[in-house]
Write a structure and sequence with these properties.
By secondary structure, the protein is α+β, with helices and mostly antiparallel strands. Helix content is about 30%, strand content about 25%. It contains ten helices and 16 strands. Strands 1, 2, 3, 4, 5, 6, 7, 8 and 9 form a nine-stranded mixed beta sheet that branches. The protein has a five-stranded mixed beta sheet with strand order 10-11-14-12-13, with helices on both faces. Strand 10 and strand 11 form a beta hairpin. Helix 3 packs parallel to helix 6. The longest helix has 28 residues. It binds adenosine-5'-diphosphate and magnesium ion. Magnesium ion binds next to helix 3. It is found in: Nucleus. Belongs to the DNA mismatch repair MutL/HexB family. This is DNA mismatch repair protein S5 domain-containing protein.
């Protein structure tokens, strides 16, 4: 090796760049599922079903009845930064859809084999195409890399196979399919709770029974009952509140003082997006400290609405962290709403037993 050449700077191959970038968006099967699930919701679906094999690493399939993808758009679906949802930067301030970066499917296609079948309303047939590294690819050697007409119904089916086949270190880091499947199911359950009116199901491919199965007519409490059982469902109190000065609206379901679990279950949605917030988590645990025995934890489902312009969802491609303006006000308001919900529950109970 020529020592002078060894340390020269060389631009990375585009494929390497894409694969690295994809790995930052798609950490594991559940990150792919969340993106595809949000796409199905963005498409206005009222029914979404998911099947997985090997925890989603071997196969991850999602089927929806949304508005579908037209034949002309097929070549662009997996192209990076190609989207039907955002037209100009200013739109970011009032965006209502989950997606907007046009990055998800592109990223998935860089770390897995993707097959999309889709049919739009009123189209005469569905189309199917395969993707690799952001582009249409032939289903089999010798065939043409273009969408093929096939039978179908309105909606989209996406099949993702052999995730991380080309990123072996990542694939090997994922030890158990069971663990990955548990994460897939958790995300499906959370979105099912926040999307009453949309039927959702999740199962392992080849198994007869579903691990999640909700119907369109199920209420939020019905859905929580079907996931966690009636021991929790009968101890739920609704939460509702509004703080007009910052445009905050909160609704949700919380367990009352009769329910206590070893671990906190906290499903938090901000503007319909599943997110995490350790500060809100702490705030809620504080509220419940007055109600639950030591070591006991509640179940909390919160759906928070804030004006999009007071949220920065663009912090990271995964959009998992949300920075919000007026953080102190939001925390104080949520704490108050939770207290109110629990207190009104308590007084109505006392009243009930006295009567
Ligand atoms: P984004 O959601 O940010 O636009 P994606 O990579 O997730 O980017 O999707 C790219 C495009 O593919 C979307 O803008 C949308 O037009 C289309 N698409 C993806 N999934 C679906 C689906 N399930 N139904 C209809 N259209 C879809
Ligand atoms: Mg998307």
């Amino acid at each position: 090796v020529d020592p002078a050449r060894e340390h020269r700077i060389v631009a990375l191959d585009q494929q390497v760049v894409n694969r690295i970038a994809a790995g930052e968006v798609i950490h594991r099967p559940v990150s792919a599922l969340k993106e595809m699930l949000e796409n199905s919701l963005d498409a206005g679906s009222s029914s979404i079903s998911v099947q997985a094999k090997g925890g989603g690493l071997k196969l991850l399939q999602i089927h929806d009845n949304g508005h579908g993808i037209s034949r002309e758009d097929f070549p662009k679906v997996c192209e990076r930064f190609a989207t039907s949802k955002l037209r100009e930067y200013g739109d970011l301030e009032h965006i209502e859809t989950f997606g907007f970066r046009g990055e998800a499917l592109a990223s998935i296609s860089h770390v897995a084999h993707v097959t999309i079948t889709s049919m739009t309303e009123g189209a005469t047939c569905a189309y199917r195409a395969c993707y690799a590294d952001g582009q249409l690819t032939a289903a089999r050697a010798g065939e043409e890399a273009e969408p093929k007409a096939c039978a179908g119904t309105r909606g989209t089916q996406i099949v993702v196979e052999d995730m991380f086949y080309n990123v072996l270190a990542r694939r090997n880091a994922m030890k158990s399919g069971a663990e990955e499947y548990a994460k897939l199911l958790q995300v499906m359950q959370a979105y099912a709770i926040d999307n009453a009116g949309v039927a959702m199901s999740c199962k392992k491919q080849g198994e007869a029974s579903s691990d999640l199965h909700t119907l369109k007519e199920h209420s939020t409490v019905d859905i929580i009952r079907s996931i966690y059982g009636s021991a929790l469902a009968k101890e739920l109190v609704p939460l509702k509140g509004e703080e007009a000065t910052i445009g905050l609206q909160v609704c949700g379901q919380l367990s009352n003082a009769n329910f206590s679990a070893k671990k906190l279950t906290f499903h938090l949605f901000i503007n319909k997006r599943l997110v995490e917030s350790s500060v809100l988590r702490r705030t809620l645990e504080e509220v419940y400290a007055a109600y639950l025995p030591k070591g006991g934890h509640p179940f909390v489902y919160l759906s928070i609405r804030l004006p999009p312009e007071s949220l920065d969802v663009n912090v990271h491609p995964t959009k998992r962290e949300v920075n919000f303006l007026h953080k102190e006000e939001v925390l104080a308001a949520v704490q108050q709403f939770a207290r109110d919900a629990l207190i009104s529950e308590n007084t109505s109970r006392t009243f009930f037993t006295q009567a």
